[in-house]
Amino acid sequence: MIDPEIFGHNKQEFIEDPYPFYAQMRSNQPIFRSPRFDGAWMLFRHRDMIRLAIDPRLSSSRARLPAAKIPVPCRAEFEDMFTAFERWMAFKDGGCHRQRRRQAVWALAYLTEEHLTPLVREVAGQLRQQLKAEPAVDVMGSFAEPLPALVIAELLRAPASMAPVLKGWADDIADLYGSTDLRVEDIRRIQGSALHLLDYLRSLATTGDPASILAHIQAHSVDGYRPSQDQAIALCIQLMFAGMEPTRYLVGNAVRALNQHPGQLDLLRRQPNLMPGAVDEFLRYDTPVQFTARTAATSFTYEGHRISAGDPVLFYTASAHRDPEAWDRPDDLDITRSPNPHLGFGRGPHYCLGSTFARVVCQEALSVLLDEFPVLQLHRPQALDWNTNLGFRGYRSLYLTRGDPVMAAAP
Ligand code: HEM
């Protein structure tokens, strides 16, 4: 038995394989209040996520949850950063959320699969040349990471040289919202990145190209709402951050899943038309966004537990995806699974706004990697390098070799 109180979002042993812990929690303590996580409620079953993810008694207003880690006398220092993040649509509820979301959906309607595919394909084609240079290639550093970063830089009309800088700032924001073990000095570093990013986007907004995503956002008024520059920048940060972080980890996790399931890899190679369904199954089988968070807007009782107003509530989506009450053979990767109503892009009013982007990037990336690596053989599988953040779970680096097919599947 694993003691749930030692569970943490930054602990290597859980990051590597959180699924046995989730199974234990589903069986024994599916609704668990953790003193370690500022009294957060942790929910592991599919049925609880289905019921509560759309329950108005839970609020998305959680921009300041990480502030609980900051000693009260230091909090004022971080006001600028939290004020900026509070503008995110993801942290809004009710009418305000609906208004911002409708406007964003209109403004971003041009980012269809048809629009994105040629752009993503072109960038993937350029990056592919670098994959050829070495016998062992880090597919994260050389491909899965720069691919969405370069596409987003292009959508912002920022120079390609800014892509790694934007990615670094996005990594820091991911640390803020996916970690449990932050120290004040970590939050200081994150605030530094957030403020640099804000300044950079402000400079793009004033001098930028009218075809940039920022200009698109500001150009549209829907139901009388036109975002101010600060609101447009807030949406842009969210798109940039979400576009770079989980998307790259989804590609890496998919590569690893195929490496561990040679039968499924073989099937996908023989039937590339299965790719869209395969991406859904990768989102179910090993989603990078392992949990989503809410706070209780009011006090209420759920399944005998008294949840108090203000309590954080964490839904472990990745656990819901392995819940045998909801899925047939939940621990099997099956790229033909249909239907596949996974929760990888969320559920309800906050359903992911970038699902098309994520799907296109993942499909295009995997098509290149399957083509480029005749077998998806890991180089040194015993030394996998994880990003130690369960909120955005995936590999920092993942080396593939062009190797011997007999050795292809890693344990
Ligand atoms: C594999 C990649 C991705 C995954 C797994 C993912 C997952 C999610 C999830 C689970 C939510 C719901 C969060 C909640 O209910 O609190 C969400 C919301 C959101 N995602 Fe994604 N996402 C991905 C990629 C993207 C991309 C590429 C973009 C933009 C370019 C994006 C933009 C957003 C936005 C703006 C929201 C908030 C929507 C709202 O509050 O109405 N995501 N995403």
| Bound ligands, each once | protoporphyrin IX containing FE
Q: How large, in whole angstroms, is the Cα Rg?
A: 21 Å
Helix content: 40-55%
User: What's the number of domains?
Assistant: 1
Strand order of the largest sheet: 1-2-8-5-3
Keywords: Heme, Iron, Metal-binding, Monooxygenase, Oxidoreductase
Protein name: Cytochrome P450
Organism: Streptomyces blastmyceticus
Pfam families: p450 (PF00067)
Topology:
Elements: H1 12-16, H2 19-28, E1 31-34, E2 40-43, H3 46-52, E3 58-59, H4 79-86, H5 94-107, H6 113-131, E4 136-138, H7 139-144, H8 146-156, H9 163-178, H10 184-207, H11 213-219, H12 229-260, H13 262-270, H14 275-285, E5 292-296, E6 300-302, E7 305-307, E8 312-315, H15 317-320, H16 355-372, E9 377-378, E10 385-386, E11 395-397, E12 399-401
Parallel strand pairs: 2-8
Antiparallel strand pairs: 1-2, 3-5, 4-12, 5-8, 6-7, 9-12, 10-11
The structure holds protoporphyrin IX containing FE.
Explain what this protein looks like in three dimensions.
The model is unreliable at about 405-410 (pLDDT under 50). The protein has helices spanning about 10-15, 20-30, 45-50, 80-85, 95-105, 115-130, 140-145, 145-155, 165-180, 185-205, 215-220, 230-260, 260-270, 275-285, 315-320, 355-370, and strands at about 30-35, 40-45, 60, 135-140, 290-295, 300, 305, 310-315, 375-380, 385, 395, 400. The chain is of the alpha+beta class. It contains 16 helices and twelve strands. The protein has one domain: Cytochrome p450 (Orthogonal Bundle), CATH 1.10.630. It starts with 11 loop residues before the first helix and ends in a 10-residue tail after the last strand. The strands form four sheets. It has a five-stranded mixed sheet, covered by helices on one side. It has a three-stranded antiparallel sheet with strand order 4-12-9. Protoporphyrin IX containing FE binds near residues 287, 288, 289, 346 and 352. Protoporphyrin IX containing FE binds near residues 243, 288, 352 and 357.
